[in-house]
Amino acid sequence: MWTSAYRDPFALPNHGPRAAGAGRGHRTLAAMRHGSIPGARGRVRPLTLLGDPILHQPCEDVTAFGPELATLVEDLFATMYASQGVGLAANQVGEPLRVFVYDCPDDEDVRHLGHVVNPRLVEADGVVIRGPEGCLSLPGLEAGTERHDHAVVEGFTVTGDPVTVHGTGFFARCLQHEMDHLEGRVYADRVKGWRHRKLMRQVGRASWRRGSVPT
Ligand SMILES: [Zn+2]
């Protein structure tokens, strides 16, 4: 899960799915008229947390492009929005399948909204930037994580049509983060040195890690 938690609200005051730009408003109204807001028919599911085996093993390819897949995508959107995230992978709601959704701004504040089934990361290049990153599967935490500034993902829609997603900046980070989830990795696996040690200490102290109810 790519979450607002890693988006420093002070550094990026206008970013995120809750940003209320005029363009966003128009799109939302149009979607309402057509009854097509992503996640509107979805169910908010419990999120899996760091340490759950499903987050630490590769997901499987989707083989059936039927109503169950459409329901999963709707549930992913509903859960992502409920958690104020900007991306969510299927294994974060307990489904070990290669699917993720996103509603994420790039560095130019262009909104990117969609889903990908059976995605492949076909390009990840450009400069490597270490930026704050977090994840709803490690609630409340973030750490400087290195990512490429440009990424391209190819995959399919819920109806089986091919789709290509290009990302730069913050959205490229999101795409790489979600692709990692489907390979059984979390951002903490990419954090290095003292940042990793600090993050793991914070994980050890986290209330959700001790089995209490996250707030
Ligand atoms: Zn994540």
From TrEMBL:
The record's keywords, sorted A to Z, are:
Hydrolase, Iron, Metal-binding, Protein biosynthesis
GO terms in the biological process aspect are:
translation
Q: Where is Fe cation bound in this sequence?
A: 135, 177, 181
Q: Which Enzyme Commission number(s) are on file for it?
A: 3.5.1.88
Comment on bound cofactor: Binds 1 Fe(2+) ion.
Top EC class, one word: hydrolase
Task: Report which reactions are catalysed by this protein.
Answer: N-terminal N-formyl-L-methionyl-[peptide] + H2O = N-terminal L-methionyl-[peptide] + formate
Annotated GO molecular function terms are:
metal ion binding; peptide deformylase activity
Its cofactor is: Fe(2+)
- Active-site residues (renumbered): 178
| InterPro entries in the cross-refs | Peptide_deformylase, Peptide_deformylase_sf
Q: PANTHER family under this entry?
A: PEPTIDE DEFORMYLASE, PEPTIDE DEFORMYLASE, MITOCHONDRIAL
Protein family = Belongs to the polypeptide deformylase family.
Q: What does this protein do?
A: Removes the formyl group from the N-terminal Met of newly synthesized proteins. Requires at least a dipeptide for an efficient rate of reaction. N-terminal L-methionine is a prerequisite for activity but the enzyme has broad specificity at other positions.
Q: Which NCBIfam families match?
A: pept_deformyl, PRK00150.1-3
- Protein name in UniProt: Peptide deformylase
- UniProt organism field: Streptomyces actuosus
Classification lineage: Bacteria, Bacillati, Actinomycetota, Actinomycetes, Kitasatosporales
- UniProt lists the gene as def
